[in-house]
Amino acid sequence: MTVTYVSRLLHLLRRGLLEERYAVDIARDGEEALYKFEINEYDFILLDLMIPKVNGIEICRKIRKVNTSIPILMLTAKDAVEDKIIGLDAGADDYVTKPFSFSELVARIRALLRRGKLADPVILSLDALTLNPATKTAKRGDKNIVLTAREYELLEYFMRNQKVVLTKTQILEHVWDYNYEGLSNIVETYVKYLRKKLRTTPKDKELIHTRRGAGYIFTDE
């Protein structure tokens, strides 16, 4: 999630992060940010210090009361050492001062995401299918499955929500973006791609099942 009140900066950050293949959810003030944090699951938060209604420091403190592991990168025009200390003490993992290099920002995001994954090196599995979030690789039995970035994100979302019906809207919001405005059948298209790739042999079980009128469920039953 990206939180800032500057419309032009918000637009540039969203566009740039989408080009880097991140799904991006945006909030323009502190209240919206806290509400979205309560109802969604995020991998990373990019947080502007000076935002309306609830400032970045207070947001950071509230998030840390309920989640100590999600990476938070603070973004601000304030470059005083005291301000950086306050932000870090509130729970931010890193601090970038405006103006900044976008390539450096992305590098810092990648570093924080890697740090989080190393702390939780879980291997996801179902039937003979395994997925390693740390290396972003998948195998079925002894056969490697080559996936595009979006196919991988969809598979990981399914594997983290096994035996739960996921609606098309939930998949769009998590794997693509809240503000996705592309093809209306994009989920169906990628589910078709993924089903084909997961069947590495004719005997492999179908793992992605359609629940008519509801969505999809990932199960070997």
Automatic annotation (TrEMBL):
<dbReference type="GO" id="GO:0032993">
    <property type="term" value="C:protein-DNA complex"/>
</dbReference>
<feature type="DNA-binding region" description="OmpR/PhoB-type">
    <location>
        <begin position="121"/>
        <end position="220"/>
    </location>
</feature>
<dbReference type="GO" id="GO:0005829">
    <property type="term" value="C:cytosol"/>
</dbReference>
<dbReference type="Pfam" id="PF00072">
    <property type="entry name" value="Response_reg"/>
</dbReference>
<keyword id="KW-0804">Transcription</keyword>
<keyword id="KW-0597">Phosphoprotein</keyword>
<dbReference type="InterPro" id="IPR001789">
    <property type="entry name" value="Sig_transdc_resp-reg_receiver"/>
</dbReference>
<dbReference type="GO" id="GO:0000156">
    <property type="term" value="F:phosphorelay response regulator activity"/>
</dbReference>
<dbReference type="Pfam" id="PF00486">
    <property type="entry name" value="Trans_reg_C"/>
</dbReference>
<feature type="domain" description="Response regulatory">
    <location>
        <begin position="1"/>
        <end position="113"/>
    </location>
</feature>
<protein>
    <submittedName>
        <fullName>DNA-binding response regulator</fullName>
    </submittedName>
</protein>
<feature type="domain" description="OmpR/PhoB-type">
    <location>
        <begin position="121"/>
        <end position="220"/>
    </location>
</feature>
<dbReference type="InterPro" id="IPR011006">
    <property type="entry name" value="CheY-like_superfamily"/>
</dbReference>
<dbReference type="InterPro" id="IPR001867">
    <property type="entry name" value="OmpR/PhoB-type_DNA-bd"/>
</dbReference>
<keyword id="KW-0238">DNA-binding</keyword>
<dbReference type="GO" id="GO:0006355">
    <property type="term" value="P:regulation of DNA-templated transcription"/>
</dbReference>
<dbReference type="InterPro" id="IPR036388">
    <property type="entry name" value="WH-like_DNA-bd_sf"/>
</dbReference>
<dbReference type="InterPro" id="IPR039420">
    <property type="entry name" value="WalR-like"/>
</dbReference>
<feature type="modified residue" description="4-aspartylphosphate">
    <location>
        <position position="48"/>
    </location>
</feature>
<dbReference type="GO" id="GO:0000976">
    <property type="term" value="F:transcription cis-regulatory region binding"/>
</dbReference>
<keyword id="KW-0902">Two-component regulatory system</keyword>
<keyword id="KW-0805">Transcription regulation</keyword>
